[in-house]
Design goal:
heterodimer, A: about 110 residues, mainly alpha, 5 helices, B: about 140 residues, alpha/beta, Rossmann fold, 6 helices
């Protein structure tokens, strides 16, 4: 099973450590906000808004090198537009995995 | 060297950072103004004195999306001739068709891979930066 990693971020940053730091800061900050927003909107059955949040989260999923998870998020985003929530549990697993990964990253 | 002014309309901050990174590596003098949705972009157009050479806009955004923003831009005499390029992963072909009917200058998908994204953005910016008509 694929694991989050920083390869893609390092590829974008091209040894620009300041840029890498900014990217990680934004990623961490927004991920936690969007993760919470996802849970709240899903609980409230606000699936249109949930789909928009999945759209935002999928870019972060891709940024962490999770290609298969990115594909799942894309599929889930579209399914939510049709009120199909079957992929919710799989999506939560992805979010939890990223949450743990990001919590271990210290930005100095 | 003249500055080529770009108005980037994109709600995702990571995507904006990626765009900035690509532009930083380009030859030429580029200035980017950023807006997080169409409404903010309109406010920038109205309040800033910048003559933008190019608008690059995402499609799916909260408050005012790319399509609504495009309608506003094309309805205003002072802005309607600024080249407008859509950068998005939308699958809504009907909406895209309407965008072309309204007069967008181009559309490209945001590739997942950064190197591919970088190539696409470079191609678009270099094309318009070398277009003397819009800088006249």
């Amino acid at each position: 099973m694929e694991e989050p990693n920083l390869s893609y971020i390092k590829n974008i940053a091209e040894d620009d450590l300041d840029f890498e730091k900014i990217l990680l800061m934004v990623l961490k900050e927004e991920f936690y906000e969007e993760q919470a927003s996802y849970r709240n909107n899903f609980s409230d059955n606000n699936l249109k808004e949930t789909s928009l949040i999945v759209h935002k989260l999928k870019h972060k999923i891709g940024l962490l090198g999770l290609e298969k998870s990115y594909e799942l998020a894309t599929l889930f985003e579209n399914q939510l537009k049709n009120s199909d929530t079957n992929l919710h549990e799989s999506f939560i697993e992805i979010l939890n995995k990223i949450h743990v990964f990001l919590s271990k990253i210290k930005i100095e | 060297m003249n500055t080529f002014s770009i108005l980037l309309v994109e709600d995702d901050s990571i995507e904006r950072l990626k765009f900035q990174k690509v532009v930083k590596n380009l030859k030429g003098n580029f200035a980017i103004s950023e807006a997080v949705n169409g409404k903010c972009a309109l406010e920038l157009l109205d309040t800033q004195k910048t003559d933008y050479h190019l608008i690059i806009s995402d499609f799916n955004m909260p408050i005012m999306n790319g399509f609504e923003f495009l309608i506003e831009v094309k309805s205003r005499n002072e802005f309607k001739n600024i080249p407008f390029v859509i950068m998005s992963n939308t699958n809504d072909l009907d909406e895209l068709k309407k965008c072309f009917e309204l007069g967008i200058s181009g559309y490209f998908k945001k590739p997942y891979n950064f190197n591919d994204f970088s190539k696409k953005v470079k191609t678009v910016l270099e094309y318009w930066n070398n277009n003397d008509i819009i800088k006249a």
